Amino acid sequence: MSATHDRKRRNFLKTTSAGAALLAMTKALTNWTCSGAGGATPSARRSFEAATRTLAELEAKGGNFLNVPKPDGEFLRLLIQATRAKSILELGTSHGYSAIWISLGLEETDGKMTTVEILSERIELAKKHLAQAGLAHRVTFKEGDAHKIVPTLEGPFDFVFLDADKDGLMDYFQKLYPKKILPGGLLAVHNAISRKEAMKGYLEMIRQHPDFDSVIVSLTMEDGFSLSYRKRA
């Protein structure tokens, strides 16, 4: 990577002070939250250890088994813990890597998540990985086209993670807002740097939306999230 290219990526994050503050907070708190189960109960420690082993196995396989890089997974867990989110929706389960990180956060908040995946072979592996991680009790799996499934979901959700088709983001948003995203809730969309051209319409819309405050956050300087907070008033 050239020095100019690297500098552009770093400047992308620095365009908002909020993004820089979130990055600093994440670096500090991720070290604390991922250092171990600490003073948790024996059952919580066992769940943490099982999840850690499963995550390590998926990381060793790499490729399609990681729908987000590890720092982004850690960030998702941190967001769940910091916001005390209890009702989560994920679009784009893939093989369950991000769902494990989110579910680790839900172990602390005692919440549940619904995750949607269109490919049957992926969702079967995701179910296996969540069970292996000891976190299947946190997750409801939905197989099929998320554009058709989202309108059928009861909701509302206080955290939504979109990691499905980028050209469908506007349709997802229209089906989620306003009834399925709670005021005070967060909407996180992955690949906001690497796929920013494909997401251009959505990124422009959410940035200007009067009911949301939005920033771009990167943990890796290679890719990141569009993170949007729905205002309470």
Topology overview:
Blueprint: H1 3-13, H2 17-33, H3 42-61, H4 70-83, E1 87-91, H5 97-109, E2 112-117, H6 120-132, E3 139-143, H7 146-149, E4 157-162, H8 169-176, E5 181-190, H9 200-208, E6 212-217, E7 225-230
Parallel strand pairs: 1-2, 1-4, 2-3, 4-5
Antiparallel strand pairs: 5-7, 6-7
Helix pairs in contact: 3-5, 4-5
Short account of what is shown:
Helices cover 47% and strands 19% of the residues. It has helices at 3-13, 17-33, 42-61, 70-83, 97-109, 120-132, 146-149, 169-176, 200-208; strands spanning 87-91, 112-117, 139-143, 157-162, 181-190, 212-217, 225-230.
Question: Can you characterise this structure?
Answer:
The chain starts with a helix and ends with a strand. The longest helix is centred in the first third of the chain and has 20 residues, at 42-61. Residues 8-21 and 23-39 have low confidence and may be disordered. It is built from 9 helices and 7 strands. Helices cover 47% and strands 19% of the residues. With 233 residues, the chain is α/β, with parallel strands linked by helices. Helix 3 runs antiparallel to helix 5 (97-109) and helix 4 packs parallel to helix 5. It has a single domain (3-230), classed as 3-Layer(aba) Sandwich (Rossmann fold). A 7-stranded mixed sheet has the order 3-2-1-4-5-7-6, sandwiched between helices.
